[in-house]
Specification:
The protein is built from 15 helices and 31 strands. By secondary structure, it is an alpha+beta fold. The protein is about 25% helix and about 30% strand.
């Protein structure tokens, strides 16, 4: 009648426990045992309709801390079919009798009828003389739990505790991702684990449990580690029905992540956004799918959009233009004769730049500048992650991860932007293709949120007011800037546009203006600006040479004079290289 290698799974009261055997191919057998010869104070109902007897909770807590999760030996002494109970004895692994421990510490009384351990009466007398446990004054503070009154207000609770950790005790497990816990105030509260859904267990009309595949296994996974254990609850949010969502932290790790890693739960997109453990959940699900664990035993990978890609999905390139914070143009260094490739950064989105007189979204300029400063003109390694068909025209856009070739193990462009709060990670659904470093993107975004950087800060960036005086219509305004540029010193700028080999549009940040600038002392072949105009020989070559040299690069200019159309004339340097000299040399 003994169950070898039994473990205490639950403690129902100060004298009753549930023990379980060894799992073999599923949840193990269980047995409820009430300690024979002793009686602990009775706990009240969870709904507060009946109160605890004095010291009932303290008695149960003593037994819980003594035996929960412990290996024990047990023996049934008496079974009473009328009340459906088995009475017996339990010994800890070190040989201590549990009933003797309870009585010695005063947390149960010895019964006056039935089979009684001969040592118990003397132990009870000593505890009574010492006034410990139930032998204390019943009017003492803490003798009876003070259960909270009134309804539970979820919004007030979240306002006070969201983002904080609470010490809780797991009271019951409905399924792998739904539990009930005791809050520190003795409020009994349902909790759903953020970011996942485990197979459900329901009851039919007869009260029989009906489970989805692997539901019992998922419930046992949680029960065997958390039931009636102390844990930390990270409060994270609620749904539209005011159901509480959070993450339970176990000394060995995060329970929700381990459920997903073992194929016992699936990611839920909307609630995974509540938790900072989303990257770990994403990685755990990928690992479970690849190993075809449990819920994923019949998973078939979806077809890859990269099947439509011609050539390798990874190549070395040079960044020739940054269009926005997440859209750029590169030149394949192995096939320089091919047209430049337009790419978007995978799995992130940055604020939009304004079009046709529209204002930029906050942080859009800063996102573009971050990408430009770090990558323009640099050699990079591009890995195309997926292809999407966009818009009504059916344009195919390639989405990629980009890293500096000089730092192949460093952060990608997406991670750099996300870490500075200049981009947000896209929340992909299910098996949707995503960036190869998606986990790192989520971590970088979480870091920016904690530090309240960029998009996650409460303040907007400083407003930008740029005067564009680069057109002929603005010649009179452009002339007003001439005194600022003819002081004999170089001025820093950024090339916004290349008109032809020797003419540029340059942003001067210090003066908040965009000017038309021509290189002095040289003349390049003219490109045909109008639709029917013919370019002079080598005009396109000169244009492309200058674009490669300076488009969106930081330059220095030295203004010498200005023509009647408002164009500034002088010398320009890119990385200390004189542009006019380079054009002449080539």
């Amino acid at each position: 009648r003994n169950m070898p290698a039994a473990t205490v799974k639950a403690v129902l009261s100060g004298d009753t426990v549930i023990v379980m055997g060894v799992p073999r191919g599923g949840p193990p057998p269980e047995k409820q045992i009430t300690l024979s010869g002793v009686q602990a104070p009775r706990l009240g109902r969870r709904d507060g309709q009946t109160k605890d007897e004095p010291w009932a909770w303290a008695s149960r807590e003593f037994l819980r801390r003594l035996v929960i999760g412990q290996k024990v030996e047990w023996e049934i002494v008496e079974s009473v079919a009328k009340i459906g109970r088995d009475f017996g004895s339990i010994r800890l692994a070190d040989g201590r009798d549990v009933a003797e421990e309870i009585v010695t510490n005063g947390w149960a009384r010895v019964k006056t009828t039935g089979a009684v351990n001969e040592s118990l009466p003397a132990l009870e007398a000593a505890a009574r003389d010492s006034a410990v446990g139930v032998w204390q004054d019943n009017e003492s503070e803490g003798a009876v739990r003070q259960m909270p009154e009134g309804d539970f207000n979820m919004q007030d609770f979240l306002q006070q505790y969201k983002g904080k950790k609470l010490a809780v005790q797991v009271e019951s497990v409905r399924d792998g991702s739904s539990l009930r816990v005791w809050l520190p105030t003795f409020r009994h509260c349902a909790v759903h684990l953020s970011g996942l859904q485990c197979p459900q267990i329901k009851r039919d009309a007869s009260g029989t449990e009906v489970a989805e595949p692997f539901a019992f296994e998922a419930r046992f996974f949680v029960e065997s580690r958390l039931l009636h254990r102390d844990a930390e609850l990270l409060v994270e949010g609620c749904d539209k029905f005011d159901n509480l969502f959070g993450t339970l932290l176990h000394p060995a790790g995060v329970v929700s992540v381990e459920l997903v890693r073992n194929g016992l739960g699936r990611l839920v997109d909307w609630s995974s956004r509540l938790t900072r453990f989303q990257p770990q959940l994403e990685a755990a699900q990928r690992a479970a799918r690849e190993q075809r664990l449990r819920l994923w035993r019949e998973w078939v990978p979806p077809p890859s959009s990269l099947d439509r890609l011609q050539g390798s999905n990874q190549f070395a390139a040079k960044v020739v233009e940054v269009v926005s914070g997440d859209f750029f143009v590169v030149r394949d260094l192995a096939n320089t004769s091919l047209p430049d490739r337009k790419l978007s950064l995978a799995s992130i989105k940055t604020p939009r730049l304004g079009r046709r007189g529209e204002k930029d979204q906050p942080w859009a300029f800063q996102a573009k500048e971050c990408l430009r400063e770090k990558f323009i003109g640099k050699k990079v390694i591009v890995s195309v992650d997926y292809i999407r068909t966009l818009g009504e025209r059916g344009e195919e856009r390639q989405f990629a991860t980009m890293k500096l070739a000089s730092q192949p193990d460093g952060p990608s462009a997406g991670c750099i932007l996300a870490k500075q709060g200049l981009a947000e990670a896209i929340r992909h659904r299910g098996d949707e293709e995503r960036a190869s470093d998606y986990d790192q993107l989520l971590e970088a975004e979480n870091e920016a949120k904690k530090a309240r950087r960029g998009l996650h800060s409460s303040s907007a960036p400083a407003a930008r007011h740029i005067s564009d005086v680069s057109t002929a219509a603005e010649a009179s305004r452009a002339k007003k800037f001439l005194p600022f540029f003819t002081k004999g010193s170089r001025v820093s700028g950024v090339v916004e546009h290349v008109v032809n080999g020797a003419r540029l549009k340059v942003l001067i940040p210090k003066e908040s203006c965009i000017i038309s600038f021509a290189l002095s002392g040289i003349k390049c072949p003219s490109t045909g600006r109008k639709e029917d105009a013919v370019s002079e020989p080598y005009a396109e070559e000169a244009l492309n040479f200058t674009r490669d040299m300076c488009l969106q690069h930081n330059i220095e200019i030295l203004v010498e004079t200005q023509d009647r159309g408002g164009t500034f004339i002088g010398s320009a340097w890119v990385s200390q290289t004189n542009m006019a000299v380079s054009l002449l040399s080539n």
